[in-house]
Design brief:
The chain folds into two domains: 10-44 and 312-396, Aspartate Aminotransferase, domain 1; 65-299, Type I PLP-dependent aspartate aminotransferase-like (Major domain) (Aspartate Aminotransferase, domain 2), CATH 3.40.640.10. Helices cover 45% and strands 14% of the residues. It is built from 14 helices and 13 strands. It has a seven-stranded mixed sheet, with helices on both faces. A two-stranded parallel ribbon has the order 1-12. Strand 5 and strand 6 (156-157) form a beta hairpin. The longest helix is centred in the last third of the chain and has 31 residues, at 301-331. The structure holds (2S)-2-hydroxybutanedioic acid. (2S)-2-hydroxybutanedioic acid (LMR) binds next to loops.
Length: 401
Amino acid sequence: MFEKMSPAPPDAILGLTEEFKADHNPDKVNLGVGVYKDESGKTPVLECVKTAERILLDEDQSKTYLPIPGSPEYGAIVQSLLVGGEHPIVTGKRARTAHTPGGTGAIRVGGDFIAEQFPGATIWVSNPTWANHKGVFAAAGLSVKVYSYYDAETRGLDFAAMQRDLQAVPAGDIVLLHLCCHNPTGVDPSPEEWKSIARIAAEKGWIPFVDFAYQGFGSGLETDAEPLRILLEEVEEMFVASSFSKNFGLYKERVGAFTLVASTSAAADAAFSHVKKTIRVLYSNPPAHGGMIVSTVLSSDHLTAIWHKELDDMRDRINGVRRSLVDALRNRGADFDFSFIARQKGMFSFSGLNNSHVDFLRDTKSIYIVKGGRINVAGITPTNIDYVCDAIAEALKKYPM
Ligand code: LMR
């Protein structure tokens, strides 16, 4: 059965890591996958996480299954981080949360739920979007369309085109919105623009599906969540996929959440019963360890304070690298203005490099960048910044913009 199969193409992001690992060049640099690295190039286990794991090792009494949507404590913690414990969707019990294997798991749960409950619905994703969005939603059986987002001329948001496209989305369709630190561009709407997006959703009757994978990496935990509160002022129904991969550094533990918001508590219960059925046939119930780490940290004031500091440090380092990168490229006389890199938010920068530069950097310098020019800013360290910037300057000479 397998002899006639030709190999599938490597994954656009994780495939790069495989190539990177196989590369023997001692100077190689991985600016592909969105994983935070510290100044020494390591992806550390946060101190708050280590402490929580020690506590769990001593105190955890059983490895029995979690409920299908995970533990209720975890769900409450997720909702409180998203909107605060006093928000009407929480006090009015209009939100239900399931612990999922990572943010990708949350997106797939949402995709399957939508495909089962609203056959024929289309999901609209930004142009461009995370390389895996289309694949996950298509695998769930949804039809996927794009709305305008990025303006390659200004290196910013094409808000007029975005508004125009969102106004044309039919009622009952779903619109995927990156809440902060847009992946891959690092370009986010302003609070005023979010208000318009929320009004369009309410007027046109489409449902937001918020992807919130980088809370705390943009401007801070509260500020990054502000667009969610803005949307909830206008719309009553929503899906949220959130993740602790980045802000807790829990990548391989696969700790995410799918939250469904309905107009009433009874509607939330009914809809969530179907989400549970969706989960049961996908993976039955979630892996416990990562969620227990998050719950342990966030139920301790002391560990929460350590987490906040560690998260602030990660964000500050990334913003510092953005500025260093702009300066280092300018100092090399790069014939192109990279100042927009310092204005973008989160782990990624849509660098402006095109696929000829990306191929040149990979093939001749062992610098790995996602096709389209997305670079993981956190992969740049004091040790490799000169090598990377020299290589980019050389690529720009060979293939002028
Ligand atoms: C990324 O965009 O690099 C991350 O979200 C990791 C992934 O799974 O693609």
